[in-house]
Amino acid sequence: MSSQSRTRPTPVGFLRYLGGRPLPESMREWVLHDVVGPGHTRRYITRGVLPLLPILIAFFFIPTPLIYRVGMIAILLIPLVYFQIALTPFYRRHLLLTNGLDPDLVSARTQRRKEATKADYDAIYGDRRQP
Predict the structure, then answer these.
(1) How many CB atoms lie within 10 A of CB 92?
(2) How far is CA 66 from the centre of its chain?
(3) pLDDT, mean of residues 9-22
(4) Gap between the Cα atoms of 104 and 80, Å rounded
């Protein structure tokens, strides 16, 4: 990596990245950390809720009882977060694919955990495939 290459995207580059545009090859390590590194789900949910935040704050200024204002916010926020969590693997695969990385990296951690569990099981109970 040359001394002139960036390790983090610019704010405009970051917004383009969130919109689905690929980052330069010099930032692939950053993309990899962003998509499969620790805290990836928290970052993804935060990025989904932030654009809705002004609308949610505006609901607090509607002159109605507090329970109605909280209800309006919950009606928007709960399904948003639910669907964000449900669609996280698809979005992560898309980001990896558009940036030239292997989309199977999304499930690599889960696969390693399954293999470790199977190895532990086989170590305790042996291979049960033989009669």
Answers:
(1) 20
(2) 33
(3) 88
(4) 26
